[in-house]
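Schema walkthrough. Field components (list of strings):
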Amino acid sequence: EIDGVLGIGGGQGSAVCSHAMRQLPVGFPKVLVSTKVAQAGAGAYVGTRDILVLPSVADIAGLNRLTKRVLSNAAGAIVGMVEGEAPQEEVRPVVTMSMLGTTTACGLRLKELLEGEGFEVVVFHAIGVGGKAMEEFIKESGAEGVIELAVNEIGNELFGGKASAGPQRMEVAGALGIPQLITPGNADFINFLSIETVPPHYRDRKLHRHNPQATTMRLNREEMEVLGRTLADKLNKASGPVKVIIPRKGFSSWDREGGIFFDPQADEGFIRALREQLSGEVELKVVDLHINDPAFAQVLFGEFKALMGRVPKKSTRR
Amino acid sequence: EIDGVLGIGGGQGSAVCSHAMRQLPVGFPKVLVSTKVAQAGAGAYVGTRDILVLPSVADIAGLNRLTKRVLSNAAGAIVGMVEGEAPQEEVRPVVTMSMLGTTTACGLRLKELLEGEGFEVVVFHAIGVGGKAMEEFIKESGAEGVIELAVNEIGNELFGGKASAGPQRMEVAGALGIPQLITPGNADFINFLSIETVPPHYRDRKLHRHNPQATTMRLNREEMEVLGRTLADKLNKASGPVKVIIPRKGFSSWDREGGIFFDPQADEGFIRALREQLSGEVELKVVDLHINDPAFAQVLFGEFKALMGRVPKKSTRR
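Field assembly_structure (string):
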């Protein structure tokens, strides 16, 4: 029986170790000591998993005062994780939720309401790897309901942003028949990193430098229409129940009257394209609120309870 | 008394935690749980330090089955490191050595010879962050001698490669008066990552795709001359003894007869520029060997012992 994994490697070795570790579930103790991670970055090695990455600082060329300290800490870390007390297993029915800072006000309010009803809520950060981790969680760890407050990863995939979660994003829950409550949270923009990562053909677009490592771009009406149709195609494939609830007054904290990304015409294009393309199986409601209005979280809560068809009882799923 | 540090953060929080952690020495237990590291990469957060980075997978928005597992592991890791047995303190005099795969044959042979004489050898990987870590180690942890088998970081700084260790590389030991044995290991090339990271004005140069994340470029004669003069300027500033030993038959495993980077004229330009610019204080020897010839490691060993003026005894330095 294996309780934990410790890997040590340079460039090639880190890649090999990481590949093996990424097959293991979240929570399984895994430590990777790597000579390369400080240069190459962790993204390539951790993927969507909780791999503890420890830069070796010195080269792994024999034992010396530096490598002894680093390797001793790696050993301590894996032993500490394996011997540590496992967290108590949750027995509440679990709901996954995507969100970004721009829809956090809605997300935290809705989360509180759901927890008050006995749901457990697992939130994922919609920056690409977050959406991927959410899809994996839905598949592997089980989720009884899915709420999307961030669909920007779809736009990123379509229009070349840096926060794509791959072409299958928002299709896993549908394939598994899991109930989905969808809002177009953050549909108004796609993500880049530093301003230099914005491709030349987008340089004259409406850009927002949120911080040195986060630049966002407003999607225009034409792009919003493509996004609407793409979203509809994904939801039409779902084998479980799907509801789409649209906050007409804006999709993110930047997309509201007076906000830097406010563009009701582009948003209307999205709504129209989505409505035209959606099959009759999918319910669509437009609400005259902004996504971060407290009343909108309340609407979502009511719709979600109706979608689930019950006030949840204790789940036996683990 | 603080025995370890555990930090948890998103983009901003990770940056703040990381800044504090990087003030702590190598070996001091530090764990950073970060929502951003899987996207942004670890490089920005770990710097030259052994910070254990744990991607949070889910957003840190309350406790749930995922965040409980991840945070429980983080707690286990820091406790395991703090409670783990500290490695025995080394008491041998320590020598730092820079190297890359292309000079490893020389490095490992020389390391063995030095260890046989009672030295402890700490090797750093010359990929930029490695050279920076070496300079910090020389300053903070103490080194009684410095051996350079990799000067490619200087060329990277001069010519826009991706493995620069900053403009002060190879100046710390000189400022502290620590004896230095210098070879032009890997002087023949500079480093890029994937082939796309090579700037357009270098696209028609002699490039070598070592692996998908490592492309190197042969420096031409003119650049080698600039490198020689720059190196001389750095060494001329040293307040301690410096010896430069040059293997005329090639500076890396790629720079030898029949090798992809073999270019004796460019190397001669480097040697001439270096010799012309070096002050009389710095000893320079040209040896008719390749850097990875076993006899060259033997030459370096003899020169280093002479430079240190003694067969080392037990050091009290810690």
